[in-house]
């Protein structure tokens, strides 16, 4: 059984027991999160597609850790204008483990 969820402006295909990194959630480590924006649920034979979300469907997940991703360097340059700008960015994330997928 798998589901397509939406969190942090992105969509993820998840199965039970999977770990994934999503945009930072304000939940302590070890806490549980209930994701209710489920776009699609499939159990092999039956597939339910929401319009846009499925009412009553939830995905329960446990927060494993918080962290920050690798540094991305932004470099702007204008030739012959003596303009150079360097900037770095590290995106925060939350690693979650999918515990259960429930669809009505």
UniProtKB/TrEMBL annotation:
<keyword id="KW-0689">Ribosomal protein</keyword>
<keyword id="KW-0699">rRNA-binding</keyword>
<dbReference type="InterPro" id="IPR036164">
    <property type="entry name" value="bL21-like_sf"/>
</dbReference>
<dbReference type="InterPro" id="IPR018258">
    <property type="entry name" value="Ribosomal_bL21_CS"/>
</dbReference>
<dbReference type="InterPro" id="IPR001787">
    <property type="entry name" value="Ribosomal_bL21"/>
</dbReference>
<dbReference type="GO" id="GO:0005737">
    <property type="term" value="C:cytoplasm"/>
</dbReference>
<comment type="function">
    <text>This protein binds to 23S rRNA in the presence of protein L20.</text>
</comment>
<dbReference type="Pfam" id="PF00829">
    <property type="entry name" value="Ribosomal_L21p"/>
</dbReference>
<comment type="subunit">
    <text>Part of the 50S ribosomal subunit. Contacts protein L20.</text>
</comment>
<dbReference type="GO" id="GO:1990904">
    <property type="term" value="C:ribonucleoprotein complex"/>
</dbReference>
<dbReference type="GO" id="GO:0005840">
    <property type="term" value="C:ribosome"/>
</dbReference>
<keyword id="KW-0687">Ribonucleoprotein</keyword>
<comment type="similarity">
    <text>Belongs to the bacterial ribosomal protein bL21 family.</text>
</comment>
<keyword id="KW-0694">RNA-binding</keyword>
<dbReference type="GO" id="GO:0003735">
    <property type="term" value="F:structural constituent of ribosome"/>
</dbReference>
<dbReference type="InterPro" id="IPR028909">
    <property type="entry name" value="bL21-like"/>
</dbReference>
<protein>
    <recommendedName>
        <fullName>Large ribosomal subunit protein bL21</fullName>
    </recommendedName>
</protein>
<dbReference type="GO" id="GO:0006412">
    <property type="term" value="P:translation"/>
</dbReference>
<dbReference type="GO" id="GO:0019843">
    <property type="term" value="F:rRNA binding"/>
</dbReference>
